[in-house]
Specification:
This protein is mainly alpha-helical and 133 residues long. It has one domain. The protein has 3 helices and no strands.
Length: 133
Amino acid sequence: MDDLQKELDLSNRDPNNLNRHCQTAFEDVLGEPDGSHSPDCVWRISSMCFKGGKACCYTILTGICGIFIALYWGCEFACISFEQIWCTTPCIRVFGIYLGCMQKFFGTCVSCCLAPICETAGLCFSNISVKNG
């Protein structure tokens, strides 16, 4: 358990800025432009209500759902990893092996049949010259 706690940074929980778009501080959500100010006491109380309501609701939701959602996403990414490691990558490797053989076969056919025709046509047309008169 000590290794797990060492890996977690409990102060910076989004070190890769995955959820930068979800900034929800009071100042990020509400702002009164010049000429449209509510009384200072309303603004202060609104800020306290916003922050308290958000913290309480977030705490309750993460307490009830967070562990189960984390378990779900852990299982989801485990299934994706399993599928990629045990199914997709070997399938791509087999596909590459078969196509490699096909590439050699068709490459040989093209070299034997089409290359002489193209070379001959090239030699025939190489003697043509165009003059602007």
